[in-house]
Amino acid sequence: MAEVRPSAGAGAPGLATIFPPGLQAIYGECRRLYPEQPNPLQVTAIVKYWLGGPDPLDYISMYRNLGDASLNIQEHWHYISFGLSDLYGDNRVHEYTGQDTPSGFGFELTFRLKREAGETAPPTWPAELMQGLARYVFQSENTFCSGDHVSWHIPLDNSESRIQHMLLTEDPQLQPVHTPFGIVNFLQIVGVCTEELQAAQQWNGQGILDLLRTVDVAGGPWLITDMRRGETIFEIDPHLQQDRVDKGIETEGSNLSGVSAKCAWTDLSRPPEDEDDSRSICIGAQPRRLSNKDTEQIREALRRGLEINNKSVLPPISGQRQNHDRPQSRKGSLESESSAAIIPHELVRTRQIENVHLKFNQESGTLIPLCLRGRLLHGRHFTFKSITGDTAITFVSMGVEGSFATEEHPYAAHGPWLQILLTEEFVERMLEDLDDLTTHEDDKIPKEFSWPEKKLKISILPDSVFDSPLQ
After folding, report:
1. Carries keyword Nucleus (predicted)?
2. pTM of the model
């Protein structure tokens, strides 16, 4: 539970000494930006997280920002969180690691919401949105970075709005804060439409954020979210925006390297009753499990892709972790993108497969063209990790090092982890055949695509197939 109240004002005379230093340091940056609002309205957790409460953010301050008419920046409400960083320095929430290291998770969240005419107080729903993201971070220990995206799948304010997903970027006004317990950055939540999220997945989040900054009604320079926005940037400027995205995908590819998905695979070249079958289809028994080493390898790969919170606090959340400081070589490596090599564990047998059937739900299936066009054609790899079991399907290109799938044996399994190596020529052909996967019409599933000479089949199936114990 939470309540709304005026903040006490950390800078008030006589109060500075009783305020925790981490909290006081963030308040100081807020006072620099809003000197005329020393006591903003706050949403505060009634029972603090460190006392067993459900909300990780102790406070969320809400300021009125007048914008800048000369820059076409609209008046808006500015929300700032307190709690993802170390506010107290006494290990009650975060472990202290030093003044020159990230404080807690190293960031706080912000959100800029367009102020509607006649509004005298900020809506409080963004505070619950921020608490939801904070719960994901605390429970998964996956941090956010600028350019990450969040697949939310419902309007952020539970209305009929088209703004149903989020991108993350640096807050344009708040500067990093050096506290006694480490460094705090400020990451701003930016509400986006489904088409904009998909473009971020196919290309990258930073590219879409740059496009949003150029369109005043879609966010403008400070990326202010307008829940009443009825058009995507591609509808506002159909040719220019889509052309820039298409060119970006063609020249740079996608830096989304994995998704949590509803997926499965079957070895069609092996009888189902084979005792050594390591497929993950559960029939009367629990699926074989990945080794700890394999699980860690895939988890590390997925840190750069879409993560899902198994506690159902949030829908899938991305965690892109590409190195933006250096250009990506066309020659990728599974080993280079994880803390451990992808070379299979010596004690687990890797087996070659002659004939394979891949199964995806509709949402996962729509990402297969992204996998092929944005990743494999750029010499990279892409992983689908099952959210209902230990199944993992990794597509790799000819340029990826460290794969246990080879040109001679392009389908190889390591327990329930399948790797599929595809040539550029075959990828181009698959893209043509899979063209209608970008549609979301439920009446068109199940769908089946088959390449008999390659002994490969892909089926797009209803969610219910994967929710069933028998898959």
Report:
1. yes
2. 0.69
Three-state secondary-structure class, residue 80 = strand
Comparing C-alpha atoms, which of 139, 258, 243 is closest to residue 199? 243
Please state, in angstroms and rounded to a whole number, the distance separating the CA atoms of residues 416 and 184: 40
Cβ(78)–Cβ(188) under 8 Å?
Answer: no
- Residue 58: phi, psi to the nearest 5? -65, -40
- What is the β-pairing status of strands 456-461 and 356-361? parallel
Question: How is residue 133 written in tokens?
Answer: 């993201």
Among 370, 369, 359, 382, smallest CA distance to 467 is for 359
pLDDT tens column, 170-181:
999 999 999 999
**Class of residue 254 by CB neighbours under 10 A (exposed 0-12, middle 13-18, buried 19+):** buried
Peptide bond into 13 cis (omega under 30): no
Segment 329-361, tens digit of pLDDT: 334 444 433 323 333 444 457 889 999 999 999
What contacts 277, CB < 8 A, 6 or more positions away? 267, 270, 271
Place of tokens 């399907």: 393
pLDDT for the residue 404: 86
Q: What is the pLDDT of residues 47-69, one digit of tens each?
A: 999 899 999 999 999 999 999 99
At residue 120, what is the residue type?
T
